[in-house]
Amino acid sequence: MTASTEAPAKKRFSFRDLGKMFGGGSSNVRQFGILFSLIAIIVLFQILTDGLTLSSGNLINLVSQYAYILILAIGMVMVIIAGHIDLSVGSVAAFVGIVVATAMQQWNLPWPLGIVLGLVVGALIGAWQGWWVAFVGVPAFIVTLAGMLIFRGGNQLIGNANTIPVPQGFTEIGAGYLPEVGPDTGYNNLTLLLGLIIALAVIFMEFRARRVQRTMGSQPAPLWVSIIKVVVLVVVIGFASVLFAGGRVGTSFPISGIILGVLVLVYSFVTRNTIFGRHIYSVGGNKHAAELSGVKSRRIDFLVMMNMSTLAALAGMIFVARSQASGPQDGIGWELDAIAAVFIGGAAVAGGIGTVGGSIIGGLVMAVLNNGLQLLGVGADRVQIIKGLVLLVAVGLDVWNKSQGRPSIIGFLTKNRRKDKLDLEPTSSSPSVGAGEAPSEDPQGLVPTAGTPDTSRPRG
Amino acid sequence: METGPDTRDTRDNPVILEMRSITKEFPGVKALSDVSITVRANEIHAICGENGAGKSTLMKVLSGVYPYGTYTGDILFQGSEMRFRDIKSSESAGIVIIHQELALIPELSITENIFLGNEPTRFGAIDWVTAKKRAIELLARVGLSDDPDTQIKNIGVGKQQLVEIAKALNKSVKLLILDEPTAALNEADSQHLLDLILGLKSRGISSIMISHKLNEIERVSDAITIIRDGKTIETLDVKADGVNEDRIIRGMVGRTLENRFPERSSNIGEVFFEIKNWNVQHPQVAERMVVKNSSFYVRRGEVVGFAGLMGAGRTELAMSIFGRSYGNFISGEIVKDGKEIQIRNVTEAINNGLAYVSEDRKALGLNLLDDIKRSVVSAKLKKIAKAEVVNDIAEFQIAEQYRKSLRIKTPTVNEGVGKLSGGNQQKVVLAKWMFTDPDLLILDEPTRGIDVGAKTEIYGIIRDLAAQGKGVIMISSELPELLGVSDRIYTIFEGAITNDIPAEEADPETLMRSMTSMKTKAVTK
Questions:
Q1: Chain A CB contacts of B179 below 8 Å
Q2: With a cut of 0.85, is the ipTM above it?
Q3: Closest approach of B129 to chain A, Cα-based (Å)
Q4: Domain total of chain B
């Protein structure tokens, strides 16, 4: 009975624990790599631009310049999870922008009602496109390609291909900032307060998550992991809020950033925790199985498309507000930025996989890259080439990783630490762990007809 | 088909293939360890083993899917050592594998499929005249007389399987590997295919056959190698060792499965579910009725079997009852607990206490991207949701309960269902439907593609459900299973119910007679 044998097995530092810092669940691990890329890109540009990237003015500019693309990414990830695509978002945004601008200019519609009008028009457009996708059964690619043409033309028809200015109050949603209140601290007080609230929320959420994990009987990561995670996040939030609060007088955290933040929270919750959110994943993952489990897939398709156009309307209005006018060239190419953000953020082309958080990180990667290259004075031509390559490499790495049987970067790291040397064994793309497993036979199954649009059925 | 005793004894034939001490490791798993197999000329060699035993991996090693260098051990084919880099190199040596998922392209014609990747050319362009001529010859060799211009999607699975073999013959195959060749075929097509394999044997083509259908193996194979947990257990000579199904099962599971079927508890109650004069039309072809004037009933605590050949309309009947998810509903009544009810969609079916476990687990039963806990609650999320928000703690706890009670083999319920074996996936599907608190469970081929051990467990679950007073409808192509588990059996032929037999009076012959002819004993209640 020696003392050494009684010493409790001390927990060694492990990459696996480190992985738990970013969500812990296996589904979140995919975002881990892209989050690291984002940090790396920020650090890189911070050095290359001599600290200009993380300056107050640039950060504020970055948020207000990309908020509308990120808002589109939220809607787009839901569309893509459900197994569709939406190419019309840029045109829909431009159409709604011109409708709202015209209504405010010609009918003197008060601006708050203008916003409501914009959202309603967006929802109606979404209902129109959703109807074709869900109930007629036309692929979303075609429906929204048509929409892209229709609403671009609509924008130019209503606006006579002119630019229409919008009134003062309306510009707040795109160009406004948190107002100055309270004592003069040299900083924007509301922005600091916002930072404090977020920091407290982060601490609360982390420890709540630990409690939930314990209730579920699964072992949470060691306490030190949580503490490091919280400390790192609080420092980042603190740093960011001081930067945002310390900008040029009259600027602070943009209103559009707040709208974005609220939408991210709401939609993360909706996609993760509600029945509707679960149904989006199940329709995208296996539509037939979902239908046979009582999921009304047509309703899901319809709502997802409708939601996308509504968010596109909001994004369009924010853009118009920021540029103080609505014009015929608004929103060109937005759909591609939004789709790129979603795929960089780890969504699957075939549907069923993706997260709001991942898409936001993917969008930020594109935004920081764009912004940093502009700061360096790189021309728009090269910026496009670089963005294209980043999209290809990011998704390519993810695909390559999966084909190697490693789920993610973190899997790669933990594997490397084992004694045996890295096994570069192609295990095919099959998801089974039991490698000797015979896949059960797939007989020619009967496909349920519940989800087929009535029009494609024979008349009884 | 009678095979003479002389053709059955292959022990003295020359060895054509020898795989020696094959070991294949995947990260963290040893799929094969020290497996050896010897195939002789003019022999049909069966490989048996439970799911996950390593049969498919072994065949992938042999066919070059896992290239030389990724495994250890030797492959000797026709006396020389083989080092296959890919499928192409094994095919040029004369080894052709036919996978259970057929590798045919539905939109292309039979000819185009046969010569895909191997097109005869003339001055650099594909020589379709030669191709078509050769295709007709090859089709004749496999007993097909179809027009070689027919698109693959327009011929049945049985014929597609034969086209695959024709494609292999075109590659001057010497050793044919068939992975579950009859899994998707009906009785007649299976017979035809097996006869063809026997015919090829007499013309000097050896076959390796992987199958779960032990009766077929017993019928056609000359030798059987049994693999368990990635190791060779034994090689049996069918004729000399007097092999039968029980003997094979003993080798596969390492013990005798004495009570493959659980005891019936006999607390059968009142009739609570009735279908009256049910008529359903084909979804595309309006004049074709897939279910014709069918009526049946289920009592509480009763397991009702449905026997019928593939295409008889069993699944169509079940799915049309389950929220009209198949075909166009024409007429019929559903009576539950004495009251007529309307079930127009799947949601109404679930709310009325119906559950349907599909025959095609991967295509219709599960979202393979999902994890276990989400799959288990997915058919009735409302049960654990408040104001549309899902309670994920309850979800986890419920999934844990089912993991324990159904003995789903998984480290945690957070694991993806795509990673589970067939048997465990099926348990997840059963858990999913048990969670909806059904009164009537319709199980369509509940044991298809899962191994013997898991089958027994599924039978146990079915009997437990019946013992709880639920009605169970079990559709199955395996007559022994129907006879062993059901209390009463309906037979179905061409969309109509042809017979209603208590299990104790039924035997395979009577069932088969009612499954293949319209002559019905008036179905009475």
A1: 438
A2: no
A3: 32
A4: 3
